[in-house]
Structure formats: C-alpha cells, structure tokens
Amino acid sequence: MAEEQTRVSELPEDVETDDCMTTYTYIYSPDLLKDHVAFITGGGSGIGFRITEVLMRHGCDAVIGSRNLDKLTQAAKKLSSATGRRCLALPMDVRQPETISTAVEEALKEFGRIDILINNAAGNFLCPATALSFNAFKTVMEIDTMGTFNTSKVVYERWFKDHGGSIVNISATLGYKGQALQVHAGSAKAANDAMTRHLAVEWGPSGVRINTLAPGPISGTEGFRRLGGMSAESSGAFQTIPLQRAGNKTEMAHGVLFLASRASSYVTGACLVADGGSWLTSANNLPALLGIAFSQSAKL
Ligand code: HXC
Ligand code: NAP
Questions:
Q1: Half-sphere exposure (CA, 13 Å, Cβ side) for 16?
Q2: Lining residues, ligand 2, CB within 6 Å
Q3: How far from 37 is each of 25, 59, 100, 114, 259, CA to CA, in Å?
Q4: What is the pLDDT of residues 122-164, one digit of tens each?
Q5: pLDDT over 90 (residue 68)
Q6: Residue 30: strand, helix, or coil
Q7: What whole-number distance in Å separates Cα of residue 282 and Cα of residue 295?
Q8: In percent, how much of the chain has pLDDT > 70?
Q9: CA-to-CA distance for 297 and 279, rounded, in angstroms?
Q10: Which of 188, 223, 215 is nearest to 277 (CA)?
Q11: Which ligand has its closest atom nearest to the C-alpha of 120?
C-alpha cells in the first residue's frame, strides 16, 4: 500500500476536466520554451488542452485552433489566466486548408512567429467495419490524416521552411495489433506515423524536426469516454497493462514537451509510445468489443 502511494505520488498533477491544474511541479526548466509560439490543433479540450497548458507554463504563447470557437475562447481564457502567457483562439477545420491558412496568418500577425506545431485534432468512435459507412471511414481519414498533412504543409510553407521549427503529431497504437472496431482511426494514425518519417526526411534540411507521440488510454478525455475507458477501468481491465493504470493528460504533455523542445534536438522521425506498455499486453477482446457494439442499436 505504502509502495503504491509512493508510485501514485510520483505522477504529475492533472485534473479530469478541461481546466488548468491548480498546482504544477516542474520537471524541466520553466524557461524551456521562453518566448516561443506554439500552434495546437484541438487545443481547446482533452489532451490538447493540457499540452497547451504545459507548453505555456514553460514560457511560450499559444494558438489553439478547432471548429468550436466558443469552446476555444473559454479554454484560451483559462489558459492565459493560469499561466500568464497569451493564448489566441482561432476557428479552423483541419479538413479545409483555407481555414488553416487564415488561422496561420492571424497567428503570425499576432505573434510574429511560430516555433512549434502540435497536430492533435482527431475524430473517433467505436464501430465495426461492416457497420462503418464509406463516409464515416472517409471522415476520420480526412480529420486525422488529411488534417495533419494540411496543417503541416500550411505551417511549413508559410513559416517553418525559412525559420525551422518542431512538429509533434499525436497518434495512437490502435494499428499496431489491428484493434477491433477501430479500422478507421487505426488506419488514419498508421498513415500519420508514416507521414512523420516522410516529412522528417524531406524537411530536416530546413531545420524542421517531426516526431510522434502515441498515447495509450488517457483518463479525463473524450477519447477515453468514447472508447469505453471508464468500463475498462472499473472492470479491472487496466491491470493487464504493464503499468496497471490509465495515463493522465499531463504525462502526455510531458512527452510532447520533450519532443517539441530542444530537449530532443537530435530526434526526428521518431515515435514515442506513451501507453504504460499497454499495446504490448492488452487483449484484443473481439467478443467483448463486439458485445459493446451490438448491445446498442444507436451509433456508439
Ligand atoms: C458510426 C458514425 C458515428 C458513430 C458519425 N458517424 N459518428 N458512424 N458510429 N459513432 C458517421 C456519420 O453517420 C457519417 O456518415 C460520418 O460518420 C460523418 O459524420 P458527421 O457527424 O457528419 O461528421 P462530423 O460532423 O464531421 O464529425 C466528425 C466525427 C465526430 C468524428 C464523426 O464524432 C467528431 O467531431 N469528433 C471529434 C471529437 C472526437 O472524436 N474526439 C475523440 C478523439 S479520440 P454517413 O454515412 O451517415 O454520412 C481518439 C482516440 C484514439 O482519436 C485512440 C484511443 C486509444
Ligand atoms: P478531444 O478532446 O475530442 O480532442 C480532439 C480535438 O480535435 C477537439 O478539441 C476537437 O475540437 C478537435 N477537432 C476535431 N475535428 C476537428 C476538425 N475537423 N478541425 C479542427 N479541429 C478538430 O479528444 P482527446 O481524447 O483529447 O484526443 C486528443 C488526441 O489524442 C487525438 O489525436 C487522439 O486521437 C489522441 N489519442 C487520445 C487517446 C485517449 O485516450 N484520449 C488515446 C490515443 C490517442 P472541435 O470539436 O472544436 O473541432
């Protein structure tokens, strides 16, 4: 018990909701990103919100972009007031390159530079391949894969090509074993993992590093809720994960901070799996997952 308490107390702080942490213990220098500017897609919620907070706590200003401007504006207020840095909320849809270009121009007008791009926006739901419509597969590919390419290309051509920069793509381990009910998201993320390596090769000479962080099940997120994380946790399924628990959002943000910053200055084209060892041991429990899928008539 005492040993377990010690382990838990070593975890970084987090809160389940899309709010800033009330306390934060620095692992890296608080000046690590001083006066840098980070652009985070999907930075208004979940893992993207916490990534934005942690980057801002290390001295940078931020731009958060996604479809829901009300949500983003609320998030930006919270982030600025907790960190003392500036946060600009901009509407964009990563499937529409012109909305990305407009947001990038706004960001450059406001801050004069972009140093870091985090491709975090994604869409996902549980669905067996047979029930997945053509449009459903296409939608997830367009948000996750096209969205990552579109945003990277706009930021590269407008700024990184001449100034260098660091891109971190948020992926998933779904495709490593072929997770049931996830052909859409697993395929999209696998394409992104290849994209990370392709762009690392092409853009390295311009001083651009591109890396991937692949989270496991992360509590306090929409992904966790949609993919049955709560029932997995209460049924004890996470005991099969080598680290025997879900991850928290701050742990993901720390991985991103490493990859985005000069802490990883000679790292490019790499994937950091931050899943407690989950994909190595988790069962691909098809009957149970299909039970989830078919026990409900509506979409999951
Ligand atoms: C089956 C579904 C569905 C569901 C939508 N579709 N939801 N099919 N099951 N639950 C189908 C629709 O019927 C439609 O196809 C097509 O998908 C597009 O749906 P729209 O609602 O029109 O799309 P859109 O409004 O663009 O919304 C995109 C979305 C939505 C992905 C469907 O859920 C969304 O905006 N999600 C963003 C938030 C999110 O998903 N967060 C979790 C990320 S977690 P038809 O044929 O009817 O036209 C994550 C975790 C990864 O990525 C790994 C975890 C381990
Ligand atoms: P989330 O809060 O739903 O994050 C997704 C974000 O993407 C939202 O803020 C959403 O904002 C934005 N978004 C969706 N479609 C968009 C579009 N077309 N254009 C612009 N922005 C869009 O979910 P999350 O669980 O934190 O997921 C964050 C990332 O972690 C994703 O890449 C996900 O695949 C990855 N991941 C999560 C887990 C997990 O356990 N949660 C595990 C593995 C990987 P709007 O609705 O405002 O557009």
A1: 6
A2: 41-42, 44-48, 66-68, 71, 92-95, 120-124, 143, 147, 170, 172, 215, 217-218, 221-224
A3: 22, 9, 16, 5, 15
A4: 999 999 999 999 999 999 999 999 999 999 999 999 999 999 9
A5: yes
A6: coil
A7: 22
A8: 94
A9: 29
A10: 215
A11: 2
The predicted model scores a pTM of 0.96
Most distant CA pair in the chain, distance? 55
At residue 133, φ and ψ (nearest 5 deg) are -75, 160
Distances (CA, A) of 274 to 80, 132, 221, 256: 27, 28, 15, 10
Q: Which CATH architecture has domain 29-293?
A: 3-Layer(aba) Sandwich (3.40)
**Cα atoms in the 13 Å half-sphere on the side-chain side of 249:** 28
Contact 111, 159 (CB under 8 A): no
- What HEC string does 70-115 produce? HHHHHHHHHHHHHHCCCEEEEECCCCCHHHHHHHHHHHHHHHCCCC
Summarised one tens digit per residue, pLDDT across range 257-299 is 999 999 999 999 999 999 999 999 988 877 677 777 665 444 5
Q: Which two tokens stand for residue 39?
A: 């652009």
